[in-house]
Amino acid sequence: MRVSAKAEYACRAVLELTRYHDKAEVIHISDIAVRQSIPEKYLVQILLQLQRAGLVRSKRGATGGYSLARNPGEISLGDVIRAMDGALISVESLSGDAEITDQLSGQHVLKDVWMGVQDKLGEIMDGITFEDISRQAQKSLSMYYI
Known about the structure:
Elements: H1 5-19, H2 29-36, H3 40-52, E1 56-59, E2 65-68, H4 77-85, H5 92-95, H6 106-126, H7 130-144
Antiparallel strand pairs: 1-2
Helix pairs in contact: 1-2, 1-3, 1-4, 1-7
């Protein structure tokens, strides 16, 4: 599986918003961009897509910014990747075939395999929440300060 730069940046932005979720404050887009090394112009587009997907919300004005629309424990890695890239993996080349004449062909068997892989990957990514990722990040940081 290849993770696009857009999806990677979106995950980093959501992780940054997760850090401030309990404080009930919004984070200015420039702060997210600096802390996560994301080009600000690109981040605007990403946050708009995340907002349309119902994962983040925005507050306008001088004191405006972004926050998570849901609890980090309710936002999965799969949610963010799908919001950016659609399907987690693409099996379009095989799913478009209306008829597979030879049921024993590799094409028929592999179509079933790819569909199974897509389902399992979805289960795994939907089982990883941003609360989990944030907890893991905190453990990593504390290990460096021991």
